């Protein structure tokens, strides 16, 4: 297992770069979708989707390195969605995640909100017993989404689905964990930390030898609003990675 020399979290830099990060990661997702149609429409771009995606990742790392002095290493992003990119000293780029909420986004704000909601519904239905009492999240969910009955959540998840709005519920879960000590809220963040750590582990075998043997260890730059709750994530993420 690789040694992670340090995790860089600079709140001021993250706040200033957040909009740029979101723009670049959204563009990366679009390029990946475009790649799936590349054989059907060769006129989409004169640049191959793979090359375009790599240039976006390099652009992202360049933006972030200005603030955090990280020129090679791993960028782990967790906001509304999640993504993890490794940039080696020789310029090679490798990724894990970034496939959107239907295929991935593990450890992201949306993923945690979805998990919290599902824990409540599965517990009430008797399908899967939640590991802890669901009362806090249930009441917070009713208030946040302005539900009058359980079935009203379907409007938010289907007819009027807004990924960003659903992801915002994570801030309520974070408050439940940090301010109220709710065990189920803490559990959601614990699981998110595990999933984010798995992203780093997935790239371990692709780390350049020069980077792996660095005296400082492998640098990991954590970016995104989810890392504002670092204290709730760090133990599981560090243990996993």
Annotation field: number of helices: 9
Low-confidence stretches: 1-17, 35-54, 64-69
Main sheet: strand order: 1-5-2-3-4
On the 0 to 100 scale, the average pLDDT is: 76
Q: How helix-rich are the residues, as a percent range?
A: 40-55%
Count of distinct strands: 5
CATH class of the largest domain: Alpha Beta
**The CATH superfamily title of the largest domain:** ATPase, nucleotide binding domain
Order of helices and strands: EHHEEEHHHHHHEH
User: Which second-level CATH architecture of the largest domain applies?
Assistant: 2-Layer Sandwich
CATH topological fold name of the largest domain: Nucleotidyltransferase, domain 5
Q: SS-based structural class?
A: alpha/beta
Taken together, the total number of domains comes to 2
Largest sheet: 5 strands, mixed
What is the general shape? Answer: elongated
Strand content: 5-15%
Q: How many angstroms does the end-to-end distance come to?
A: 8 Å
Cα-based radius of gyration, to the nearest Å? 19 Å
Description:
It is built from nine helices and five strands, in the order E-H-H-E-E-E-H-H-H-H-H-H-E-H. It has helices at 11-36, 49-68, 109-125, 135-144, 153-159, 163-178, 183-202, 209-212, 230-240, and strands spanning 4-8, 73-78, 82-87, 93-97, 218-223. It folds into two domains: 1-32; 69-228, Nucleotidyltransferase, domain 5. The protein is elongated and about 55 Å long.
Gist?
This protein has 241 residues and is an alpha/beta fold. Helices cover 54% and strands 12% of the residues. The relative contact order is 0.18.
């Amino acid at each position: 297992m690789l040694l992670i020399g340090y995790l860089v979290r600079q709140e001021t830099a993250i706040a200033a770069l957040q909009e740029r990060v979101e723009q670049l990661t959204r563009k990366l997702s679009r390029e990946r979708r475009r790649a799936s149609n590349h054989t059907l429409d060769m006129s989409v771009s004169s640049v191959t989707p793979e090359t375009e995606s790599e240039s976006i990742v390099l652009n992202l790392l360049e933006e972030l390195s200005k603030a955090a002095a990280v020129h090679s290493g791993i960028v782990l992003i967790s906001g509304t969605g999640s993504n993890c990119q490794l940039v080696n000293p020789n310029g090679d780029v490798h990724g894990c995640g970034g496939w959107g909420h239907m295929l991935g986004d593990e450890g992201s704000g949306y993923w945690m909100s979805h998990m919290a909601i599902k824990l409540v519904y599965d517990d009430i239905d008797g399908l899967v017993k939640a590991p802890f009492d669901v009362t806090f999240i249930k009441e917070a969910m009713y208030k946040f989404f302005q539900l009058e009955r359980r079935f009203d959540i379907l409007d938010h998840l289907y007819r009027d689905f807004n990924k960003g709005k659903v992801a915002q519920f994570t801030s309520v879960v974070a408050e439940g964990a940090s301010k109220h000590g709710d065990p189920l809220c803490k559990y959601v963040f614990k699981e998110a930390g595990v999933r984010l750590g798995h992203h780093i582990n997935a790239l371990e075998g692709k780390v350049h030898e020069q980077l792996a043997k660095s005296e400082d260890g492998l640098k990991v730059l954590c970016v995104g609003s989810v890392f504002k709750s670092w204290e709730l994530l760090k133990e599981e993420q560090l243990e996993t990675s």
